[in-house]
Specification:
Elements: E1 5-8, H1 15-18, E2 26-32, H2 51-57, E3 61-67, H3 73-82, H4 86-89, H5 105-111, E4 115-119, E5 141-143, H6 163-176, E6 182-188, H7 201-204, H8 209-230, E7 237-242, H9 263-266, E8 267-273, E9 280-288, H10 292-299, H11 332-340, E10 350-354, H12 356-361, E11 366-371, E12 374-378, E13 383-386, H13 402-419, H14 432-439, H15 450-453, H16 462-480, H17 484-497, H18 502-514, H19 518-531, H20 536-548, H21 552-565, H22 570-582, H23 586-599, H24 604-616, H25 620-633, H26 639-650, H27 654-670
Parallel strand pairs: 2-6, 2-7, 3-9, 4-5, 4-6
Antiparallel strand pairs: 1-9, 3-8, 7-8, 10-11, 11-12, 12-13
The chain binds zinc ion.
Length: 677
Amino acid sequence: MVWVRQLVCLVCLTAGALAGTAAPPNIILITVDTTRADRMGFLGSHRGLTPNLDALARRSVVFTHAYSQAPFTAPSHATILTGTYPQFHQVEDFQVPLAKDLPYAPAILKAQGYHTAAFVGSIVLDPSQGLSVGFDRGFDYYDAGFHMAMPGEDHYNSTGRRGSDVVARALTWLSVREPGPFFIWVHVYDAHYPYDPPEPFLSRYKSEPYDGGIAYVDSCMGKLLDKLRASGLFENSLIAVMSDHGEALGDHGEEFHGFFLYDATIQVPLLIKMPGERFAGKIDNRVGLVDVLPTILDAARIAVPSDVQGESLLNMMAMPEPPPGRSAGRSPSDRERTASNPTASPGRPLYAETEYGVRAYGWSAIRSLRTGKYLLIEAPRRELYDLATDPNAEHDLAPTSKAVADTLQGQLDDFRRKTSKSVVAPSSTADPEAQEKLAALGYTASNADSLATAALGGGADPKDKIEIGNMMVHANFLLEVARNEEAVALLHKVIAKDPDMWIVYAKLGGAETNLGHFPEAVKAKRKAVELMPDSVNLHYELGNVLLKSHDYEGAIPELEGVEAKLPGSWKTHLLLEIAYSRTNRLPQAIKECETVLAVLPEQYGTNLWLGRDLIRAGDPEAALPRLTKAASLRPWAPQPHLALADAYDKLGRHDDAERERDEGKRLAEKGPAPDPD
Ligand SMILES: [Zn+2]
């Protein structure tokens, strides 16, 4: 591979831009999810998909050999926004929160006086939904607001948002923002599976729907860039565009992304338009998404925190030495950092890893190092490729070039040791309700404790499991968009291929529950528990579905086991209160209700259940405030009034009972309200 540096200074720095008093640049970070480098016109594609990004690229520095550090959304974005490697930030899947002490782009820029906002296109980056928790730190405004799809609900009105909507929301924020520099992160998800762009792209790219998604994303970028130009924000903004990872599209047998570390998913487009369009051209050096944050901070003359692990690419981009006085008012470490940060060498090794296989399915984690002409992949069956003669990584040299592989493995181990964080990452959320939500989503295991039994590196080689991996990505998508019948059929096909994957039964049970097929759901969840008996969350899920199938006696031991291990889970208390009440264990039911109400006094169902249980336990007087509260929380529901009538009757207050009964009947006639269980 020939490493060439081709730079053209299109517009030299103006005196004003060089002056120490120059305003801090606005920073616009754009991540185009799941976009392959080889679909970009500015990287040599002749498919004509990206005219708008190509126009931007002509005024930018384009990195022709940029690589992601992880092939799926949460870890890769964590690397982009923290400037650290996955083994340091430890956001290895959507369930691991971003640690508060990590350097983080919005927090750093906000501390420097920037207004900060994020506009994301998918629920996978929505911290309020228990995914990518902590990603909203430092953002004045984080635009997400997604929810799981209900049956028949459009994917783009629930778990996702079209790129044009994401862009429109970002433009609205820009139009009403307060004065001062801003940092915005715009994330568009439309190139991601299921490859269903809106018209005219759907029809135009019928035979290549993935390309249609790219073309649509490019059109969204065109709208954004046009508006930035029209509003005068284009010239003096730093605009960085990149993908978080590519898409395999069948490469090495992988359909999507996440399992493997070949170029199809790890090589990504990356371009940076400097404020004032100071530089344009191409850089062929190998760079990583880990370098984006230090480069942005360097360009904004902001000191790069010492724990950032990427390298500023600014020197490589031929940034002239700042004249005297340029750094006045900035931290001294600014210049030190710049001076001590050598230009990344053409042969700089670049690391990537994925724990998707181990976290989702208990297979092995894999790691890679691109160094010199080689790609080394550490896996149960190690791989080595000479990319200079074998750019598609089709001829594995590991069996015949053991000495080379061993040497590179030593480099990889050494690099990983030096760049890993020694402290344990914050654990995944333990709330079973959050786990339930996550279980229905594509990338996550349904149980945070899957790792406890699946030793990292001790599982199957993902190469041997890729067919199942592909099927599970399909199944997860079907579950995400509530196409439960199709999901059930596909999950049965997976079971036919591998009958020992607990997660498949867990997901099958979820789909059957959604369909109201409770006996099938119980059967599937029981099988999952049998295969993974130590999982608290699976016991919770089994308890929940037993409750739904009215097997209250069966549900109680499952839920009691969960309560003993996770006493803070209010959802478990809530389910137990119903199970106890339905089985006439009134003292226990009342105790569970009181436990829930101590934390959630506004919980409608618990107020109602407690009121009814108190009546049944012979204390109608104590029931009155609970039922009155329930009535105030849902003024349209008849049940609290009918229960109040019962309580008043028992107290001999027949006029009050009459009044409440009439009110209950009146509300019931307006429409049925289901019991809250
Ligand atoms: Zn992604």
